[in-house]
Specification:
Arc Repressor Mutant, subunit A, homodimer, DNA-binding, alpha+beta, 256 residues, Beta-Lactamase
DNA sequence: CCACAGCATTCCACAATGCGGAACAGGTCC
DNA sequence: GGACCTGTTCCGCATTGTGGAATGCTGTGG
């Protein structure tokens, strides 16, 4: 069976870029290809629009074309719509609001939220960004982020949002390690007084963490006394199910 | 500037497939490449997972890898999260529920819905599918669909959901033509008694219609007497804005 | 039933194409 | 200035992909 080498290599490069923006040398190293070859491939990919060159001189990332292509392939196949049913299920289980977030620089961008039906409930953060170090989703995302972005994050300053915010570099670093070990993160009134949250990672088929599921509620009832472990387990399980669907079948938006 | 020919060609093939599944000969014709070359390229793309071969012997479509790549590239960059703010805006303008749907075979799959705050409101269809010929989104999507799927749709049987459902082949066909001319579709109590809706197309940068924005409400107040034209205009405008963002900048989920 | 069309896949001689080491061109740091 | 990063360009070589023609497959219809 004959296979086209250059195309295979081009996709190696793309998959490499899926793990975050990178420069030519870095890609060359990771893919074990000569720099000149990578440069040439990147050149064509840029021209095609499959890859974009960040103006900050030098780093490449996936481009419009990739998004466009996959949007056409299956418009319904994406994080938000995949995760929605699982968020709803989670809300039913624990009777508190649940949400979905992704990393945006050193912040978390909230993609979606499903509310329970309490009189007192958390406002909808959909479409807004919050410093990663004060929310559970942020900590989870950073804990599993590639080493370079994690390192960059850890070097940055940490603003205190409440008296409980952890702003000490070493403590934050230590916390990330623990989160990675545990598989989920708790935050108690660190972003806002009276607000607690748990979060767990969503991992894509390539093994990268690309988002987080979280649950949150007012601290006087969330988690219910003694139920922290079970709530955490529910969140982890929901995130797990989302990851599974990201990997697998069951696509709603495909043809026929 | 040197560019890698085989990679360029591979992406020609992919872009071609973005317009719907096709066989080798068809792709060869559309891309003006020799069949043998297309076959070879498809071979490698399949092996990589960028393309999948439908078991119905022979037709190819975009595969997991493409979705995976773009999901990693920008998890927040997708129809639902792009459209959400515009749906919200639309709901504020017209004070009725609005939603988002894509084609799934001969049905419409509802991806999202935003409700107004009336006592009487339409139930949330998110996650469900409805026959395309009885809802405005469905008619819009079919009106702008590629000729083959449109033809296939028009040949199929049309079930009557209410007394108002249009089930005559010729009438449906004629209706699609009018919709394409007008740029939007109205449906009056054809899916459910007492329920009206308007829809307009979302088009991707390649010019293909990949989804529809709709608004709907109980027929006793929707549209407000004499306001059908202005409601339609709002919906069209909302769909237009979503299309613009699909094409352009302003991505929330990207790094830094 | 065989001929024929339309499809996809395989073959293979040919050379165009992409390859990759080395040389080059900017930067930044010490 | 020189050492050491980047990324891009050059250019001879041969690997690699090319594409017309041949092959195999399935369904149609005379």
């Amino acid at each position: 069976m004959s296979t086209v080498q250059s195309v295979e290599r081009a996709f190696s490069v793309l998959q490499c870029l899926a793990g975050g923006p990178a420069g030519v040398s870095e890609i060359a190293e990771r893919t074990a290809l000569p720099k000149s070859t990578v440069s040439r491939l990147l050149g064509t990919l840029v021209e095609l629009g499959a890859v974009e060159q960040s103006e900050a001189l030098g780093v490449y990332g996936l481009g419009e074309l990739m998004i466009e292509l996959s949007a056409s392939a299956s418009p319904g196949r994406n994080l938000v719509s995949l995760a929605r049913p699982h968020l709803v299920e989670l809300v039913e289980q624990i009777d508190e609001a649940a949400g979905l977030g992704v990393l945006d620089g050193h912040k978390v961008y909230y993609l979606d939220q499903v509310d329970g039906d309490h009189e007192v409930q958390v406002r909808d953060w959909t479409g807004e960004s919050v410093d990663a170090h004060v929310v559970s989703s942020g900590l989870v995302l950073m804990a599993y982020a590639p080493n370079d972005v994690r390192a960059d994050f850890l070097s940055g300053p940490f603003e205190a949002w409440t008296d409980n915010s952890v702003t000490d570099r070493a403590l934050v670093a230590h916390r990330l390690d623990e989160i990675k070990r545990a598989g989920f993160a708790w935050v108690y009134e660190e972003m806002s007084e009276g607000l607690n949250s748990v979060a767990a990672p969503i991992v894509n088929p390539a093994g990268m963490v690309i988002g987080a599921v979280h649950a949150h509620g007012p601290s006087y009832r969330f988690p219910a006394p003694g139920a922290a472990a079970s709530v955490a387990a529910s969140v982890v399980e929901a995130a797990q199910r989302v990851s599974d669907r990201l990997a697998g079948r069951h696509r709603p938006g495909s043809s026929s």
